[in-house]
Amino acid sequence: MNLQHIEQSLNHIALEASFVLQINNKSEHKQALTLMEQIIEDYDKHEPLIDLLCISIEKYENTADEFQEFNQRLSEMDSGVSVLATLMDKHGLNTTDFSDEIGGKSLVSMILNQKRPLNLGHIRKLANRFNVPAQIFI
Prior knowledge:
138 residues, 7 helices, mainly alpha, single chain, 66% helix
């Protein structure tokens, strides 16, 4: 391990794209998300950078004022429902977009409002749709 080389590399990152190490504002958050979109397609090649960006993005989104209301709502939800809400937000979906996985708009609304639970069939179909492990909805 060459400490001098590591320090030089980190200094270079700090000069070129400081948001990789720490996001301080909305503009840097947007830059981090844009970079993530560019590199995520070749995960294996960019894994170390993706890992650093994930840490910075998560830390910012957990502490920035603009995310406080959203984070509060998520913390009050059942974990499966919060995952569904997050995926809906990320993909720009609404309650009418889940007829194949859950059913009609009213059932999706009841699930999001925690008046009805996700059942095993919903979970399997949602996991398939979003290409994620079913366990994240449990």
